[in-house]
Amino acid sequence: MAKIGFDNDKYIALQSQNIRDRIGMFGGKLYMEFGGKLFDDYHASRVLPGFKPDSKVKMLLELKDEAEIVIVINADAIEKNKRRGDLGITYDLDTLRLIDAFRDIGLYVGSVVITCFTGQPLAIAFENRLKALGIKSYRHYPIKDYPSDIPLIVSDDGFGRNDYIETERHLVVVTAPGPGSGKMATCLSQLYQDHKRGIKAGYAKFETFPIWNIPLKHPVNVAYEAATADLSDVNMIDPFHLEAYGETTVNYNRDVEIFPVLNAIMERILGESPYKSPTDMGVNMAGCAISDDNAVSDAAKQEIIRRYYQASCNLRQGLGEKSEVTKIELLMNQLGISIKDRPVAQAAIDKAEETGGPAAAIELPDGRIITGKTSSLLGASSAMLLNTLKELGGISDDILLLSPTVIEPIQEMKTQVLGNHNPRMHIDEILIALSICAATDEKAKIALDQVDKLKGLEVHSSVILSRVDEQTFKKLGVNLTCEPKYQTKKLYHA
After folding, report:
1. What is the CATH number of the domain that holds 380?
2. For residue 260, what are the domain limits?
3. Which of 59, 221, 376, 460 has its CA at 20 to 30 Å from residue 166's CA atom?
4. Is residue 298 part of a domain?
5. How far apart are CA 81 and CA 86, in angstroms?
6. What is the pTM of this model?
7. Is the pLDDT of residue 36 over 80?
8. Are residues 258 and 362 in the same domain?
9. Given a cut of 90, is residue 233 above it in pLDDT?
10. Phi, psi angle pair for 75, to nearest 5°
C-alpha cells in the first residue's frame, strides 16, 4: 500500500478558496469548465496517495450555496450511442446518472446543454425525456469553421444562435459525461450572451492533470500521459506563461494549441483577455498539497506500469492500438522503470511457471506476497483471495474455509442447470459462499471480516481475467493488472 504523500484537507481548503478568488476576479460570476472525473477519481487517488476519490465533490460542497451544475452532452455522441469505457453505459444515461449523483449529495443541477445539435433524432428523444423528467435543456449549434473564424463565432450568427442558459448562482460548473462534449464552447457562448445582457462574468478551467507547478517529467505528470496514451495528449512547457512571466509551468498540448484562439475570442467578447497563458486559466491547487514528493513519485511510477499492462491487454483483446503500448514503453524508459518494478507481477508469473497453469498474486501492505493457483474447484484468483483472507485473519493454511460440500453444489448448479462450461467459482461467488458459511463458522466469519483490508492492494494475474472477476476486483478496490494473454486458445472469451 502506497505511503501517504498528499494532504487532502489542505487541498480542499486551498482549492475552494482559489475558486472563490477567481469568482471575485470577474465581478461575481464564473463559468468553470470542469475536466476529468468529478466522482470516483481513482487515477488521482492512485498517483497522489492521500487524495480521496471524491475530493473534487467535497471541494464543491464547500461552495454548495454558490454553485450550480450544467451538464453538457454532444448530440452526435447521443446519436452514435457513445459509451463510457469504465461504466459501459451510454453518454445520455450517464448524464442522468450524474444528475442523480449530484442531487444525492446536495448539489444543484441547473440544466443540460445538448451541443452540436442539428436535429439528430436520438438527441430530440433525449430532450423529450429530460422534459418529462422536469429537467431544463438547451440547444447549442455547430458553428462553421469553429474555432478559426472568430468574427463569425463571436457574433449573433455564432454564439448568438445558441439558447441562452438561465443560471442562478455565482459559480456555474460546466461538466460532461466524457471528452469532446463541448464544455469550453458552452462556457464561451455564455460569456458572449452574458456580456450582451450587461452581466459581468468570466471563464476558468479546472483540470487536475497535468499539475502545472511540478516538473514536466515528474512521475505524476508522466502518469497522466500514460493514462491518456489513447488520446495522444502530450505534456509540455507552457510557452505563453514562460514568455509572459519568465516562469516554467506545465500544461498539455491541446490547451496550449487552442490558447491563441481562446484568447482572441475572450478579447473580442470582453475587450481584453484576463489571461496571458493557459496556466493562468487554470485554478488547480493539487500541486500545493503534495506533502511527500517521494511517495507520490513512487505511486505514479506504479501507475505507469499498471497502465502499460492495461494497454497491452487492450491490444491483445483488440480494444487498443500498438502505438499506445509503445508510447507507455517510452515513458517507462524515460523514468528508468520496467515491469520488473512490479513485484507482484513476477510472483504471479513464477507461480504459473511452477504449477503449469494460471496463477495470481497479491502484495500485502508489509510487502508479503500471497499467491493462488488453479485447481479443479477454484480459479487462481479465487484461490489467491481465500489464501489472502486466511493470512490477514491469522487463520492456518490447512483450514478449509469452504469445504467441497459447499463448493460442489454451486458448481453443479453452474454447469448442469445454468449451462456454464467452466465449473470453477468466480470471486463474487466465493465471497457469497463465504458470507453464507460465516453465519455458522467462526473461521469463515474472521476471514470475511478481512475483506475491507484488500482495498488499495496490488494484484496480478498470469492471464486475462473474465469480466466478472475483473469487475469484482474493481469493486473490492484492488489495483489489478494482467499478463496480456488468455488461458485458452479459444477465439471467444466471456
Report:
1. 3.40.140.40
2. 8-213+241-289
3. 59
4. no
5. 15
6. 0.91
7. no
8. no
9. no
10. -60, -35
